[in-house]
Specification:
This protein has nine helices and six strands, in the order H-H-H-E-E-E-H-E-E-E-H-H-H-H-H. With about 280 residues, the chain is α/β, with parallel strands linked by helices. It has a six-stranded mixed β-sheet, with helices on both faces.
């Protein structure tokens, strides 16, 4: 297993080298309490050059009243009290418009104190999805949505804004095009914006490397866990039913094997019905 883990670690090192701001792990490190960087991207995406960010948090968990919670990648607040939820989505199913609606509702649910009846105290908010592909498939860089009356197109004025940013957009003549290039870029020396380039370089090549290494360890552990799970499932397909033997082959413990079986709802048949494990 040591050779496998050594290979996994080499693979992880390459993954870290290839990380971009479109990857959650690097994005959360770069933007954690990083007001200048978050202010830069919000000014460009929303075309508000005077926007002033006063607070930034990453991986902010919003608990639902029931059923499920959602973890927001970056939460920011500006000098006017406007709230911004910024998420990077690399797969389309995570960026659906109803997901945006759900995120928006959870933000609202935590903004007023219990018993508060003055809903005018709710601040304006922006739910921003930066997607790896052009989710709306219209070739534009930014898609902005608000609620409005269908006939007159008069805005409802509820303060809710939903924004989709096309991470695949290419146009190095515009700030938004340069920004999306930097989100896709793996090499900080090739980024357009010095603020982002310096921050990414810090984690990839400077003092932030220990934090990147911890991420690498986590990725390695995930890779090893995937290897164990695949090994156990392969042995099930081979009609092997001896859990102790399966554990030895997968370089793990019988308890871990049982957890894999439980995860997939597999109940091993008796050895009289399955091929017994080799000696």
């Amino acid at each position: 297993m040591s050779n496998s883990c050594s290979k996994d670690r080499k693979d992880v090192a390459q993954k870290i080298k290839n990380m971009r701001l479109l990857d959650d792990n690097l994005m959360n490190l770069v933007f954690h309490e990083n007001i200048p960087a978050v202010q830069l991207i919000l000014r460009i995406i929303l075309e508000k050059p005077d926007l002033v960010v006063t607070e930034v948090r990453t991986e902010d968990e919003h608990l639902a009243i029931s059923k499920r919670s959602v973890r927001l990648d970056v939460r920011a607040v500006d000098s006017n009290g406007v709230i911004y939820d910024i998420e990077v989505q690399r797969v389309d199913h995570g960026a659906g418009v109803r997901r945006a609606r759900y995120n928006s509702s959870l933000i609202d649910a935590r903004l007023l104190e219990v018993g508060e009846k003055n809903f005018n105290k709710l601040p304006d908010k922006y739910v921003i999805f930066i997607t790896e592909k052009d989710f709306m498939k219209e070739g534009r860089a930014v898609y902005s949505y608000i609620m409005m009356e269908q006939t007159t197109h008069k805005p409802l004025g509820d303060g809710t804004h939903i924004v989709y940013v096309n991470g695949a957009y290419e146009n190095n003549e515009s700030d938004i095009g340069k920004l999306m290039h930097d989100f896709r870029c793996t090499d900080p020396s090739k980024m357009h914006f010095a603020r982002l380039a310096n921050d990414v370089d810090y984690f990839k090549n400077g003092g932030g490397q220990p934090q990147m290494c911890r991420i690498g360890e986590e990725l390695c552990n995930e890779s090893v866990s995937d290897h164990i799970e695949k090994s156990v499932l392969n042995m099930v397909e081979m009609h092997i039913s001896d859990i102790n033997y399966m554990a030895r082959c997968a370089a793990t413990t019988p308890d871990v094997v049982e957890k894999v079986l439980q995860k997939h709802g597999i109940v091993l048949e008796s050895k009289s019905k399955l091929e017994e494990a080799p000696n």
